Amino acid sequence: xxxxxxxxxxxxxxxxxxxxxxxxxxxxxxxxxxxxxxxxxxxxxxxxxxxxxxxxxxxxxxxxxxxxxxxxxxxxxxxxxxxxxxxxxxxxxxxxxxxxxxxxxxxxxxxxxxxxxxxxxxxxxxxxxxxxxxxxxxxxxxxxxxxxxxxxxxxxxxxxxxxxxxxxxxxxxxxxxxxxxxxxxxxxxxxxxxxxxxxxxxxxxxx
Length: 207
What we know:
- By secondary structure, the chain is of the alpha+beta class.
- It folds into 2 domains: about 1-40; about 45-200, no CATH class.
- It has helices spanning about 5-35, 175-185, 185-195; strands at about 45-50, 60-65, 65-70, 75-80, 95-100, 115-120, 130-140, 150-160, 165-175.
- It has a 7-stranded mixed beta barrel.
- Helix 2 crosses helix 3.
- The longest helix has about 35 residues, at about 5-35.
């Protein structure tokens, strides 16, 4: 075999080897891109409901979207969790929080002064209903209020029905979504949270 032929054979062999590796390299790059783009859940929740039977006693939920919006000295956070095993779809549990702005570790449901307040709603099923947050801890990271600003929130909360809510939220700013929730979807529940039970009867609006 001449030198020329040996070079051609080596080139063809190298090309075939490279071509066989392209799919693996490509899929690896796509995987890294997907991880960087935030395919991990934006929120996770371990909901413990001691008074409920069976599988409903411990629910581990996740959501691909979580949103927040600034307000007058208050930041509002909304997460809608689909049923266990899903990360998108019609919500089973809704978590709504109102947090004092620029406070990293606010008091929760305090009787006086700025504090974190909120409620969660189980939207359907035999045990559907709303329960307010009455205690626990919250830690908030993020101060920017720019359009693309995010909030990272770790929480360990107790609700008035005895439920415990433990999880983490990574929320993106979405003023429209919060406005719709507060004024169109659940205005009565939000008004009760802000102004107290005397403002309106408890609602049982849809999700």
